[in-house]
Structures are given as C-alpha cells and as structure tokens.
Specification:
The complex is a heterodimer. Chain A is an alpha+beta fold. Chain A has a domain of about 55 residues: Roll (Ubiquitin-like (UB roll)). Helix content of chain A is about 25%, strand content about 20%. Chain A is built from 2 helices and 3 strands; from the N terminus they run E-E-H-E-H. Chain A has a 3-stranded antiparallel sheet, with helices on one face. The termini of chain A are far apart. Chain B is mostly helical. Chain B starts with a helix and ends in a 6-residue tail after the last helix. Helices cover about 65% and strands about 0% of the residues of chain B. The longest helix of chain B has 29 residues. Chain B contains 12 helices and no strands. The chains are: A alpha+beta, B mainly alpha.
Chain lengths: ~110, ~280
C-alpha cells in the first residue's frame, strides 16, 4: 500500500487567529464584509487587511474583528413559519385604503 | 544644473526599483497568504515610487521612465548596495525592509521641504504610502523580536548583517553639495545617516535587540563626510572590494548580486526595447 506523502500542515493555533474584515467605500456607505485574514493580533490584522482589501482603491475605511468575538445567530427553518405572517409585510396592507374608503361610503349610505 | 537634480532623482528611483524588485521575489513564497499579498503590494508600491521619480527625471534627461529603469548598464545604476542583496531568509528580508523604510522615512521628510515643488509634492505623496510600509515592518520586527528564541536569534543576526551595509543609503549623491546649495535637497545625506543611526539604535534598544555599532563607524564617519571627505576616501579605496561596508552604490559600484538581479530584471525589456506594454 502506498502511503501518501502529503500531510496536512499543522497550523500553530496559538500564533494566529482569524479576523473578519469589513470595508466601506465612503463616509455615507455602510461597512460590508469583504473577507477575512489570519493574523497574530488586531494591529497586524489591520495591516494585512489594508494590503489585501484596499489595493485597488475599493475603500478607505476598514474594521477588523476577531471572528471569535462575533456572536452569530441562524435558523434554517425560518422560511417555513408556523403561522401566516404576511401582516408583517407592507404589501399585506395594499388594499387597506380601498377597503377603508368602501367602509366609509357604506356607513354614509346607512346614515341616510 | 538640471542634470545634477536628474541624477539624484535617478539614484532615489534606483533604490526604490531595486528593493522593490527584491521584495517582489517573495511573491508566491511569503510565510503565509496574507503576507504574500501584503508584501507583493509593498513591492509594487516601491516600484511605483521608482516610476514616479524616473518620470520627474525623464523630462530632464530626455529618456522615458522605462529606458531609465531597464535601459542602463549595471555601472549606471546608483542604488545603495543594501537594496540589491539577495533576500536570503525572511529574517534578512524583514531586517532590511525595516531598516530601509526607516531610512526612507527620514529621507522623505527632508525631501518634502525641497525647493523644487514637484519633488516636495511627490515626497509628500510617497510618504503617505510609506507610513504603512513602516508600520508593516515595525509590527513584524516587534513580533519576531518578542517571540521565540529561534526567531529572535535569526532576526538579530539578520539585523547585524543588514546594518553593516546601511551606510550605503546615506552615501552622498553626486554633486550633493550643489543640490543642497540650491535647496533641492534640504539635509546632507551624512546628517540624515547620523539621525538614522540615532533613531534606529533607540528603536532597537526598545526592542531589547542589542545590535552593536562600532563606535563612530557610522555616526562620526558619515558626519565628517558632509564636507565631501567620504567621496575622497571612496576614490582611494576603489581598488578594494566594490561594495565595502555597503558603500559604492551611489557611484555605480555594485556587488555581483546586482549583476544577477540586473540580468533578470532587464531580460524582457532587452528583447524588444521599443515595445509598449
């Protein structure tokens, strides 16, 4: 049996951490996630992020955040809610003005 | 007179081009992926600075920036020998990157006050980018210096090796005293060299890296040379090693390392010098 000579390289976990990088193109734009870098500390992560993600003038403002410091939430069952929640969308109220006008005209007719 | 300034601009450009070329040799080989991109980006910045200096000089000498960058013979390049040394290991690359960018920061600070507005403006522009290079170098050096015994040992060795040739960066330019008299240059190279030694040894001290500098080796000798003594000394010692103590580069005297670099760097250009890219 041939033994593979390729072995996964051990990553010295204590040396580097993953930092998520957020970038914005201007003062009025929102920060958006653009990638991640590995670095030994936040300052080095900032330098790496600057060189990796602003090389073509994509932005002048960066945030780097240790991935371990990000609190996340997800629920894949969300698109299948237990009850009808269309009332949470604006389109559910599209006919309300028409219905209200109709109700008013009926009320006026009854009054006569 | 403008050829004096052109020669100085070309020497400045040569430093940037040659160290940029060396930095670029790490592309694909840097210690990790982010560093590969970062260091390649820094290499491109340095070559970009070279291109800007060549462009300023090109109108004065009637040659294109490409002709200046790739169309000269090895003895016509005036970069410091330190810039042409092979990368060696990452420790040497880092040590040289840190020393060079510290030196460049001092030089740019002085150039920003040049009486030639186009040079002063360019220096200010370059300096904005160099701040990031310095930070990159500083963070790396600090981390390795405070890291494992092995890394620290390698860095210390590399710093000593690179420091031994750092004087070449402060070797006076041709006709420097005339450029100073015109206000094109604001600080004589030897004075900058002395400042460099002061700030760098203080920084090394802060890092707890005991790099010993022979008493007077850089400071006094370079200060004394502001009157042109260094040039005279150099002429006398021209028959000894071409790059003794990192000197000679400003007068076109390079190491064999440069010849190999030059051959590789100019190979494509020579195939079709008139080609546009």
């Amino acid at each position: 049996m041939r033994r593979s000579t390729i072995r996964p390289r051990r990553r010295p976990e204590s040396l580097v951490e993953i930092y998520e990088v957020f970038r914005r193109s201007g003062h009025k734009e929102p920060f958006e996630h653009c990638g991640s870098v590995t670095a030994p500390d936040a300052r080095m992560a900032t330098v790496m992020a600057k060189e990796c993600f602003t090389r073509r003038g994509e932005g002048r403002h960066l945030w780097v955040i240790r991935r371990a410091d990000i609190h996340s939430w997800s629920d894949d069952s969300l698109p299948d809610p237990a009850a009808d929640k269309t009332y949470r969308f604006a389109h559910a109220y599209r006919d309300v003005i028409k219905k209200r006008a109709l109700a008013r005209s009926r009320a006026q007719a009854d009054a006569r | 007179m403008s050829d004096i300034l052109a020669a100085i601009l070309i020497a400045l450009a040569d430093d940037e081009l040659i160290i940029g070329h060396r930095h670029s040799e790490w592309t694909g080989f840097a210690p990790h992926m982010e560093e590969d991109v970062a260091f390649s980006s820094i290499a491109q910045d340095e070559i970009g600075h070279a291109s800007a200096y060549y462009s300023l000089a090109s109108t004065m000498v009637g040659q294109t920036p490409d002709q200046l960058a790739f169309g000269r013979e090895p003895g016509e390049y005036h970069n410091a020998v330190l810039c042409e040394r092979p990368n060696g290991d990452w420790a040497y690359t880092l040590a040289r990157h840190w020393l060079y960018d510290n030196a460049d920061a001092l030089r740019l600070e002085a150039l920003e006050r040049s009486s030639r507005p186009e040079l002063a403006l360019l220096a200010a522009k370059i300096r904005r980018e160099e701040r990031w290079h310095s930070l990159h170098a500083e963070l790396w050096v600090k981390r390795v210096a405070e890291g494992s015994v092995e890394g620290r040992g390698k860095l210390l060795h590399a710093l000593a090796e690179a420091f031994a040739e750092v004087r070449g960066l402060f070797e006076p330019f041709d006709n420097e005293e005339r450029a100073i008299a015109q206000g094109w240059l604001t600080v004589p190279s030897p004075v900058l060299g002395a400042r460099f030694v002061e700030t760098t040894t203080a920084a090394l001290d802060d890092l707890g890296l005991p790099v010993e500098i022979e008493p007077g080796a850089i400071t006094t000798e370079l200060i004394a040379s502001s009157s042109g003594d260094l040039i005279a000394t150099d002429e006398e010692s021209a028959s000894i090693t071409p790059a003794g103590g990192g000197l000679g580069g400003r007068y076109g005297r390079h190491s064999d390392d440069f010849k190999a670099l030059w051959a590789a760097m100019t190979a494509t250009y020579k195939i079709e010098p008139e080609a546009t890219w």
